[in-house]
């Protein structure tokens, strides 16, 4: 596979593929903006805001848990302080990171896959996955981490073609930022760091990738991680297989044992194939993407397994979104390496089918990880209208507590007293999830608002 090559079997003109890609990316950015403005806050977003953004700096830095995506937290503190607190200001850093990710994907695909159907298929595979679509705007660290890691990959690949120390220095900083944005990206960032370092050392090039990456980590993580307790970091999947299953479930919107088995087998096959192609084409500049992608996928798996065995860390769940671009770039590179018309047409058909599946479950509304909290903002408005300015005590289900606290800040309702106590006491209003819905009949409560995930009762 050579950079910027186009396939002779393309049934459409290159210009149409480029126009279609630009329209797709523009539409994704517009949809992400609308979602950032209109969708209710998710429990993960609300928890991070309530524990690490809203409190004073001293209090926020006094504790740390895995939900605190440090870079996102810092940027959200800035955006919500600079602008009035809204869902948009909360998600603004992720929205900007999403735009940077889309730009990186476009430049990466155009540089290495030409401007025909392979280029368009890569654009679709790297952007239409529901996990990726969520990361483009959800106020979590995954979008920031994904954008930083993808830019690091792009800059490193560019330097394999024409050595550029400035690009490599920037790539080192990007790798550090990706881990600061989400600790789940530690394995893939270290994998890319190791592979690229070996590549350039073998060429006799001196570069500061490791120093800049770890300096970035030290400067931005030393204070928060110093206050972490191990129990707060041990949250995630218990095995690599379960992490892959969860990734497949969120990506395809369904859960079947056959899909789980197929996903695991595909991951193993891709990792082994990547290792073979990496060894075979090592240091061939025209195959740099194939070589580097082929090395970092199996190496990431190895690092995750070693960390689990020796450090007892869990496997990433939603944070495993980095496997989407990593695996898709590798598989596409392998298929296009050999100019076999039948194999390429078959692959493009499969890509079209997968993209069609993504579009069928495209998350235009609430974020994939928390569909049951889609009515959070409507419930909060109902409570604000009903309670007025009176001081009220709220009995809130544990899962819904961060959401209620966020809207307490959002609508400046200091009269809401959401107490962190068991729901055995009597309250003025109740915000309940289905797990506590039995209280409605037990206490003969009057339902003021109800959807499939949340209930407001009095």
Helicity range: 55-70%
Structural class: mainly alpha
Question: Which outline best applies?
Answer: globular
What is the string of helix and strand elements?
HHHHHHHHHHHHHHHHHHEHEEHEE
Which spans have pLDDT < 50 for at least 5 consecutive residues?
5-13
Distance between the termini: 65 Å
Number of helices: 20
Strand % is under 5%
Strand order of the largest sheet: 2-1-3-5-4
Mean pLDDT: 89
DSSP E strands, number:
5
Major sheet:
5 strands, mixed
Radius of gyration: 23 Å
Polypeptide structure, described:
The protein has helices spanning 14-38, 43-53, 57-60, 70-82, 87-113, 117-127, 130-135, 142-161, 165-181, 186-202, 209-226, 230-233, 240-252, 257-280, 288-311, 323-337, 341-360, 376-387, 401-410, 438-442, and strands at residues 392-396, 416-419, 429-432, 447-450, 455-457. The protein is mainly alpha-helical and 458 residues long. It has a 5-stranded mixed beta sheet, with helices on one face. The longest helix is centred in the N-terminal third of the chain and has 27 residues, at 87-113. The model is unreliable at 5-13 (pLDDT under 50).
Which descriptors would you attach to this protein?
5 strands, globular, mainly alpha, 458 residues
Secondary structure: elements and pairs:
Elements: H1 14-38, H2 43-53, H3 57-60, H4 70-82, H5 87-113, H6 117-127, H7 130-135, H8 142-161, H9 165-181, H10 186-202, H11 209-226, H12 230-233, H13 240-252, H14 257-280, H15 288-311, H16 323-337, H17 341-360, H18 376-387, E1 392-396, H19 401-410, E2 416-419, E3 429-432, H20 438-442, E4 447-450, E5 455-457
Helix pairs in contact: 1-5, 1-6, 2-4, 2-19, 4-5, 5-6, 5-8, 6-16, 6-17, 8-9, 8-10, 9-10, 9-11, 10-15, 13-14, 14-15, 14-16, 15-16
